[in-house]
User: What shape does this take?
Amino acid sequence: MRVIPLLLTLALVTPSFAFGADISTGDELEATIRGLDLAEADAVLRGDFVAVDKLWAPDMVVNNPSNEVVRSSRGRVRTGVVTYASFVRNIESIEIYEDTAIAMGNEVVVPSGKSPGAGTTIRRRYTDVWMNRDGAWRLTARHANVVCPN
Assistant: This one.
């Protein structure tokens, strides 16, 4: 009968050790995702599609502020319909679930050129879904919406 309490104790204690071991790894992974999320915004700002191609999954889908759900390959950024004079991303939360990371926060953008809203400051909320696919973290899904002024 002493085996059952021992097994019960091991079952309750072992997950907490495993969780504790993941804390530093989780911090490092969160820093990695934070860096990727900021690098993605910077690459979009600069129109650097060599960098974008390394960050976006080939099948990435976007629910964009123009009320469209599109594959990023046919989206407004990729086709040049939208360009930016300024793009500031403020990450408020990063949640990690095994091979998926979700970054959320707000963005302040100023479209440029012939983009809709060119020259105006636009505030939006965003959610980026990063997935570790074949050993590389790729932006796989994105949602951004304009925050209506009060």
About this structure: Confidence is low (pLDDT under 50) at residues 1-24.
